Amino acid sequence: MTENNNEHVSYDESQIQVLEGLEAVRKRPGMYIGSTSIRGLHHLVYEIVANSIDEALAGRCDEIHITIRKDNSVTVVDNGSGIPVGIHPKMGIPTVEVVHTILHAGGKFGGGAYSVSGGLHGVGASVVNALSEYLEVEVSRDGHIYRQRYERGRTVTPLEIIGDTDKTGTKTTFKPDPEIFETVEFDFDTMLVRYREMAFLNKGIKIVLTDERPEEPISKVLHYEGGIISFVEYINRNREVLHSPPIYFEATKDDAIIEVSMQYNDSYVENIHSYANNIATTEGGTHLTGFKTAITKVFNEYARKYSYIKDNEKNLMGEDVREGLTAIISVKLHEPQFEGQTKTKLGNSEIRGLVESVINEKLQAYLEENPSVAKVIIEKALTASRAREAARRARELTRRKSALESTTLPGKLADCIEKDPSVCEIYIVEGDSAGGSAKQGRDRNYQAILPLWGKMLNVEKARIDKVYANEKLLPVITALGAGVGDDFDLSKLRYGKVIIMADADVDGQHIRTLLLTFFFRYMRPLIEKGHVYIAMPPLYKVQKGKEAFYAYSDEEVTKIQKEKGWKKEECTIQRFKGLGEMSAEQLWETTMNPETRTMLRIKLEDALTADEIFTTLMGDKVEPRKEFIQQNAKYVTNLDI
Prior knowledge:
- The protein is of the alpha+beta class.
- It is built from 19 helices and 24 strands.
- It folds into 3 domains: 13-223, Heat Shock Protein 90, CATH 3.30.565.10; 228-387, Ribosomal Protein S5, domain 2; 406-537 and 600-635, Rossmann fold.
- 35% of the residues lie in helices and 20% in strands.
- A hairpin with a 2-residue loop joins strand 6 and strand 7 (154-155).
- The longest helix has 34 residues, at 371-404.
- The protein starts with 16 loop residues before the first strand and ends in a 9-residue tail after the last helix.
């Protein structure tokens, strides 16, 4: 773990400060945990674990156990110093009770207990308590084990001593309140991703995640002595790397700890993740800006010094230098200024200069000491620069060509009449025959149809200049009207809903994956803001006489027959092999009519996991893809062979 100066600072009752009482959490849970969906549910665990991580950052804890019980309650145990149990000098009740029942009470507001903390809002334990059916806390400290129980935020038992111990730590068990949450079923895989990330960011700490709900409980030990170096290696494990091991820097400046690990691979995308006090800053911030500015400057200076770039040639752009880069930037500082309760962007202005100076000094020294690595990276950046220039020429050519034509929209696009993007939707349809049915069946007032034919470019294996040269992708780019890559501008999007409509067979799945890969790599805001949908055409039509129903699975067919009292031989079951088999009326009724259709909205819950899946499915390495198929084959249904 990182060395710090607060190992000998005492942590007692006087350091717990109260800012205000606990109010309205149960009435407005979204204000405190974001939402009452599964994301908010997982946030409860994160708030409790964050307290244990803060103990680890203070040098008082190195092991955390997180267990999902059979009844969907969760237990978090750490070997920290334990929450103080003495009577609080201001509130007159045990300090552990203050922490769990009063909002904005904690040891992170300047009392000296913590030098670095993620939970600066001080709402963690009290909010979890307020939103739980019950919460029970056991504290081991001062030679005793103390216990107290709360129900829906209210204290129901006094603090009592239940035993003696020579250990220290805190054990919290809580059960989320079903009156508050849409679901109380935790997702183990989501938690595994989150706490693996925490273990990477805090080298040396051991997190044990256990799920007791399956017949055979699952347990994962997450422990990485390499810290963020191991993190970068993990992200790049399915890619061909250009150098090994990853580059790593660590420095302490003005009481801020700055850690950077970076490694290049042979892909064409950048994969940079930034953190402040263990919190993922998904919108970046000053630390990320400092990193990007510095690496561009250092690589250009080195390239000019050793004549990779001649005097009459332009500098490399930031995007050239970042092509194929996987990097983790982690900063730990006393008083991080996050933008909003969601803490997705770091605002501390001084951290930019600190990160820049660390990178300028240490990356420059690394390149001088490792000229072979420097050469590989700069040659890749120069190739990226040439490709970007080719893409610029192709883009200008496309624009000039569009300006000369009578219409700037692709010829196969059947556009809608309405021009307000918020009510317009475009169906990207596989095949001309399905496209024909869709054009006839649509509501032309607000529904546009763009037929695609044949397989498009796999952008995972291509640079942006190839995207502009691809006749299958250009109609999509032109129809959406918002540009592509760094030029993408969501405000220019011509349709509020972009709906991929493909057959439910292997080819259809492949086309969907190719399109989603393209949107993720070159139009990511489209997915981030929830504009992309998958149309879900039915697999069966079950009919008896003039009465007909559509079904999406064999189980639904059986359910319809049972509910209607139809025997198997009395009704006709039509199996749709593809969209082209449906008439225009059927396509409208089942897949395009907003009142009766079923659509799947594509969400980006975790960019890191999404990136990993696209790399696995669409990248060059065969082995990870084979492994993925073997692991997930059991979930496949209705596969047409």
